[in-house]
Amino acid sequence: MTIKKPVLELAKVALHLWFWFWLPTISLANPEQHLPLWQYGIDTVSSTESSPPIRIRDITQTRDGFIWLATASGLVRFDGVNFKTFDNQFRNLSDNEISSLVEDNDGALWIGTYGGGLIRYLGGEFTQFMRTDGLPDDSIRKVDKDQAGDLWIATALRAIRTAPSPRSPPATACGVIL
Predict the structure, then answer these.
(1) Domain boundaries, position 117
(2) How far is the C-alpha of 168 from the C-alpha of 118, rounded, in Å?
(3) Quick check: 75 and 89 in contact, CB under 8 A?
(4) Does the predicted model carry a pTM greater than 0.85?
(5) Whose CA is closest to 14, among 63, 65, 61, 49?
(6) Residue 117 belongs to a domain with what CATH number?
């Protein structure tokens, strides 16, 4: 599958921004290895003027080293060399409008969509959860994780807190609805 040029170009721009804003915090975590920002290797990439604007809504890095981008044209994964776009051509990824990303304590990537519900990516498989699975709405505005490892899912109607489980829908795993 080929990556759509506008998605690829915007993914490169987002990756560049990620390096500029996230990379300096690495040195803050270990002050003994503090290096000035200009001593880090940073490649500059830019979008072409002919490519239409694509909105990048969220960016995260999972423990396996992949960098994930939530875009209006699908989910983009960067492995350090190549970009791969996951869009509605993939099973259980029914909506290209990705709103939010978070990795849970078990290494699952939770993907919020605007209209396609909540999607869990684990072990190379997408599992979709919708209103019929107990979510208050199929439009997920934000997914985040608290210090206890519970997922907070903000929908267009209300927010819920749930303990993620690989075997049960998120809205029924904990049942705390706000």
Answers:
(1) 5-130
(2) 13
(3) no
(4) no
(5) 61
(6) 2.130.10.10
